[in-house]
Design brief:
- The complex is a heterodimer.
- Chain A is an alpha+beta fold.
- Chain A has two domains: 75 residues, Ubiquitin-like (UB roll); 124 residues, Alpha-Beta Plaits.
- The longest helix of chain A has 17 residues.
- By secondary structure, chain B is of the alpha/beta class.
- In chain B, β9 and β10 form a beta hairpin.
- The longest helix of chain B is centred in the C-terminal third of the chain and has 18 residues.
- The termini of chain B are far apart.
- Classes of the chains: A alpha+beta, B alpha/beta.
- At the A-B interface, α2 of A face α18, α19 and α20 of B.
């Protein structure tokens, strides 16, 4: 007879996503389970390995029996949940959110270094966003190219704060932060000094790699040349977690 | 310390003013000060201090539109309405002082038998305009800190929570969440570090209830917070108050200092095991910091922006510890509930909304000021009877409740009783108690645009629907208001309202469309008029 198993704190729950059954640890979020199983919930601020931000609102999903939408990145799974990730209502909201993002700043793909490698562009294509119904804001923001290796173009920024979080949580430098309010928010380096003059920046480039758009790029890239590599992040966080 | 000691102490304090026959009370709250109460107080104090007559600075008397207000009260007859004088100038001081104990000065008199005074029921504002907010003794003499001693020495924390639950009190900050339920959630969290927070970041345009309570009766808030801390097992509290309220900040700071000196704050309060300390944190002018998670981020020294809930503050709040967060007016109700019992409180108000509510009347209304009425009072009573109606012979058009999160109600809705649920059904909210009254000359499209502009400039910029959505909605409203809009613009506006409401991260964005939706619901023809004007 084997030794009785020690009591465990981990609880596993079963639930449905889009009508199919799944199981997961109860401390996992909906988006984690969805990514693991290849269910494409869109998101721009969520990134595996970084803390939850819950700001882009693209990963909102519907729960059966509840009129409120919940953010898949900030909601843990529970026993018996019936989750719907791609209803017509959600599709409509997602398209509008993407429209708002495109209208907010200058996202002209044809002249962007990230053309073809941009998460915002990919989502727009996926949701068939061929035009924007709201007026463009047309506010010109500066481009800071003072850093010898990287460049920040605030006109392409969607304020997802992945750069802020990766710099703080993974690199430990906390060079990036956000200043201002509303649509005039900007990511800043140090206390709003030019990036090149930053004392804290280690030039590791993690912020550039996690940026979903062409806001943070390498110097010397031209249209469509800026490809990004996100694979280092789950790797680092997994190594850390194991330790 | 036991209740008997407390009675003795209160008796001592009352004895100190033995021989004083009359009190000349000068309102020194912010609105009376802004209309010139300080020189009045100086002139009265100079000429009037005597053994039989005492000149006293007090808090808000309510009728702000008639300020500066001075009341002459007979100490021996506390239940009688004092003689009230309106629009007092420093030059009137000799006349008032000469009249004390004799015939009142008729030319300054403000009748106190009008409905504005007689129709109110004062629980939260019981001491406002009567006691000196800077005087610890005055608060104790008026029965203050009895409830705290009673809770500490005669009740268990669970009994305190029970009493609050029984009272049916609901959060006065606007949400209407049952206070007892919130308290018991925090109390049920495992023992350890816990916090209580008083949300005094009142930011709705036209609302000044919390300011008045803090300026008039700050000890009441501290007492309520201490009782809450005892009930949930916290030992540290924060008052988060906006820096735009310097007088309120000063008075609550004085109150904290005096309460500490008297042993009602700090270690081993009233010789029990209970310790509690309060600190003030100042808001730097961001409306969003009234949202509980943004408020806590601000206290922690972070950028004041909300985070997704759950986890709720009761579970993981300030620095990750269980945190109880209530509004000023909610805490102001606690001491009376403990003193008089939850059943007493539950007898006031309607079935699902108990107690009284303080409202700030602003806009085009005769009696601008602060009132407290039982829940369930009709809007008509509040506006036409207590508020005195619209001045200048104009017709009433709409009342806006709940600030930028609320909505506008038309004349046809005036007979509904004011409580959380009926207002919500009609597309607005109780909110913290601001009421802006508008007459026939107000354009509802402009009102909606104004509130949308407010939300747009107060959006923290974290989530996309609120940040970019309020901006676009404001643009559309502006276009419609300037008679340049089309039917498509209105349709798009309605679509954005639905989207922003459903997808925003925090209450600011989720409720930002309410002023638009409610004006569209009740005043759609005004939008259509503007659209028609555009096509001509």
């Amino acid at each position: 007879m084997p030794i009785p198993a020690p009591p465990t704190n981990v609880r596993v729950v079963t639930f449905q996503i889009d009508g199919r059954d799944y199981s997961a640890r109860e401390d996992e979020t909906i988006i984690e389970v969805a990514r693991e199983n290849g269910i494409p919930i869109p998101s721009l601020c969520y990134l595996e390995g970084l803390s939850t931000w819950g700001a882009c609102r693209l990963c909102l999903v519907e729960l059966a029996g509840s009129p409120r939408l919940v953010a898949a990145c900030a909601t843990q799974v529970a026993e018996g949940l019936q989750i719907y990730t791609d209803t017509p209502r959600l599709q409509r909201y997602r398209r509008t959110i993407l429209e708002l993002l495109f209208a907010e700043r200058n996202h002209v793909c044809s002249v962007c270094v990230s053309n073809g490698h941009c998460e915002l562009q990919a989502l727009a294509q996926r949701y068939g966003l061929d035009h924007v119904r709201v007026p463009y804001r047309h506010v010109a923001y500066e481009v800071d190219a003072s850093h010898e290796m990287f460049r920040v173009d605030h006109n392409r920024c969607i304020l997802c704060t992945r750069c802020v979080r990766v710099c703080d949580e993974v690199e430990g430098a906390h060079t990036w932060d956000v200043m201002g309010r509303g649509s005039d928010c900007r990511v800043i380096t140090d206390m709003n000094r030019p990036w090149g003059a930053s004392d804290t920046c280690t030039s590791c480039g993690k912020c550039v790699q996690v940026c979903p758009t062409g806001a943070l790029v390498k110097q010397g890239t031209s249209v469509g040349e800026m490809t990004k590599d996100l694979h280092f992040l789950p790797y680092i966080t997994r190594r850390r977690h194991n330790r | 310390m036991h209740l008997d000691d407390m009675f003795e102490r209160a008796e001592e304090y009352r004895a100190e003013s033995a021989g004083v026959e009359h009190e000349v009370r000068v309102c020194m709250a912010a609105s009376c000060q802004s209309s010139g109460a300080q020189p009045v107080f100086a002139a009265l104090s100079e000429g009037g201090q005597g053994d039989a007559c005492r000149v006293k600075a007090v808090g808000c008397m309510g009728l702000c539109s008639a300020g500066p207000l001075v009341a002459v009260a007979e100490v021996a007859a506390p239940n009688e309405a004092p003689v009230l004088y309106r629009d007092v100038r420093a030059a009137d001081a000799p006349d008032i002082l000469a009249s004390v104990g004799r015939q009142p000065v008729e030319r300054l008199r403000c009748p106190t038998d009008q409905p504005f005074f007689t129709r109110q029921q004062r629980i939260v504002l019981a001491n406002a305009g009567i006691i000196d907010p800077d005087s610890f003794k005055g608060y104790v003499a008026a029965g203050g800190y009895f409830a705290l001693i009673q809770a500490l020495t005669e009740m268990t924390p669970a009994e305190v929570v029970q009493e609050v639950t029984k009272s049916g009190l609901r959060g006065r900050g606007g949400g209407g969440y049952p206070t007892g339920l919130k308290w018991s959630t925090v109390a049920k969290m495992p023992p350890g570090q816990k916090y209580v927070i008083c949300n005094a970041d009142e930011g709705d345009p036209g609302a000044f209830m919390d300011r008045a309570v803090l300026e008039s009766d700050p000890h009441r808030i501290l007492e309520g917070m201490a009782i809450a801390a005892y009930a949930v097992g916290a030992n540290k509290g924060y008052v988060y108050v906006r820096a735009e309220y310097p007088l309120a900040v000063e008075r609550i700071a004085t109150a904290i200092r005096k309460a500490k000196r008297a042993g009602f704050m700090g270690n081993r309060i009233a010789e029990t095991q209970f310790s509690f300390d309060v600190e003030i944190r100042l808001g730097a002018g961001a409306f969003v910091c009234g949202e509980e998670t943004a408020l806590m981020a601000s206290i922690e020294g972070l950028r004041g922006q909300p985070r997704p809930r759950p986890p709720y503050p009761a579970q993981a709040g300030l620095w990750g510890y269980p945190t109880l967060i209530n509004n000023v007016e909610t805490y102001a109700n606690i001491a009376p509930i403990i003193r008089e019992g939850g059943d007493w409180f539950a007898d006031i108000g309607t079935e699902r909304s108990k107690g009284t509510k303080v409202f700030a009347l602003a806009g085009t209304i005769r009696n601008t000021g602060l009132i407290e009425v039982p829940m369930g009072t009709t809007l008509r009573d509040i506006i036409e009877v207590i508020g005195g109606g619209i001045p200048g012979g104009k017709a009433f058009k709409a009342v806006q409740t709940g600030g930028p999160s609320g909505g506008c109600l038309p004349a046809a809705m005036l007979d509904i009783p004011v409580d959380y649920d009926s207002l919500r059904e009609l597309g607005t909210i109780m909110g913290s108690g601001g009421m802006i009254i508008m007459d026939e000359t107000s354009s509802m499209v402009d009102v909606a645009r104004y509130f949308m502009e407010f939300c747009m400039s107060e959006s923290c910029g974290k989530c996309v629907p609120c940040r970019a959505g309020t901006l676009q909605m404001h643009g559309l409203l502006d276009k419609i208001a300037k008679a340049r809009g089309s039917a498509q613009d209105l349709a798009l506006l309605e679509e954005l309202c639905d989207m922003v409401q459903a997808t925003s991260l925090c209450g600011l964005g989720q409720t930002a469309p309410n002023p638009v939706l409610s004006t569209l619901r009740y005043f759609r023809e005004e939008y259509e008029e503007r659209l028609a004007a555009a096509q001509v």
